[in-house]
Amino acid sequence: MSTTNGQWRGVIEEYRDLLELPEGLAAVTLREGGTPLVHSEWLTGLTGGEVWLKVEANNPTGSFKDRGMTAAISVARHEGAEAVVCASTGNTSASMAAYAAKAGLKPLVLIPEGKIAAGKMAQAVVHGAQIIMVRGNFDHCLDIARGLARDYPVALVNSVNPVRLQGQKTASFEVVDFLGDAPDFHLLPVGNAGNIAAYWLGYQQYAELGRATRRPVMRGFQAEGAAPLVTGEPFPDPETKATAIRVGNPASWHLAEMAAKESEGRFAAVSDEQILAAQVELARHDGVFVEPASAAGVAGLLAELSAGESYAGRTVVITVTGHGLKDTATALETFTDIVDTVVDADVAAAAAAAGLA
Ligand code: AN7
């Protein structure tokens, strides 16, 4: 991996030769990617394998979406677009708004009414997006976004735009570049299913190039109330507290199924309780605070271990997709007594309250 004076250049410059993008494309970048693989002593201990977290919160807008967005916005500008549109459960809109601002494009965001985490909403607003709330879910928003891009002069930057996957697949490259080979297993949350498709694309490409000797088994985890890839049927009314993956009819359904099939992987569902418990456990054991949806992969691993599945001796990468600060309201819902005690400004009183005295 090359750098300029030690600074990571962003995924287009770091991996340009490996991405299907227009020749000489000028990158609109916030230096996304180059995110850490953090070793999880906790999950390594539980599994008897080696478990790594690919911490995508460390992207400029706090989620993995920036990898695909640098590519999509660069191409939109390259092709002369003046406005860009996306449907979003929150993170795509936050990312699009930031990159559109950098590129001087007008961002238009379609989001499901009342179901967007406050942090993500703040990002879209502050970056200057025009926000349209739709009485409906993400799937309705995506239909509208597609319709707008078809009939009006706005470029669609959802992951149905193949350029997005070109950027997002760089996450697999980074995993292999760091570990020296592909892991045995790759676990991640799945909503609209672009990310699992992109990872699989990246792993396949590296294997074909001889940069990896193997391809991982891909395991995708959905929320029980929004698990179409598990049941095989769209969910007309998807529901989960993990709003980022509240998707009933994933756009990349077919690609995601191919990734699971070709890698001998699978999809499974986890409950909101399992997701929120995993979020807290991950924060407390590993010091990594992720948003609820991002904990679905960890929740999946824990559920599989309980069901007798073994990862002993295996290398496992789990992508944690977005930052915990995106949605503090949901994170704090389970905590009734946030502040233990209120005391006067006095050491003895604090010591007594803390049980030290
Ligand atoms: C934190 O922002 O779909 O399976 O519109 O924000 O590639 O959809 C977000 C998805 C996982 C699922 N984790 O990824 C959107 C949006 C987080 C996310 C997913 C999302 P995909």
Helix content percent band: 40-55%
Strand residue content: 5-15%
- The CATH architecture category of the largest domain equals 3-Layer(aba) Sandwich
The gyration radius over C-alpha positions equals 20 Å
The secondary structure category is alpha/beta
Looking across the biggest beta sheet, what order are the strands in? 1-2-10-7-8-9
CATH class of the largest domain: Alpha Beta
> Low-confidence stretches at least 5 residues in length (pLDDT < 50)?
none
Distance between the termini: 54 Å
Counting DSSP E segments of at least 2 residues, the number of strands comes to 10
Distinct ligands, ions and cofactors found in the model: ligand AN7
Mean pLDDT: 97
Total of helices:
15
**Largest pleated sheet:** 6 strands, mixed
Order of helix and strand elements from N to C terminus: HEHEHEHEHEHEHHEHEHHEHHEHH
The CATH topology of the largest domain is given as: Rossmann fold
How many domains in all? Answer: 2
Describe the model:
The structure is a single chain. The protein has 15 helices and ten strands. It has 357 residues and is of the alpha/beta class. The protein folds into two domains: 203 residues, Rossmann fold (3-Layer(aba) Sandwich), CATH 3.40.50; 93 residues, Rossmann fold. The protein starts with 10 loop residues before the first helix and ends with a helix. 54% of the residues are buried. The model has no long low-confidence stretch (mean pLDDT 97). Ligand AN7 binds next to helix 4 and helix 9.
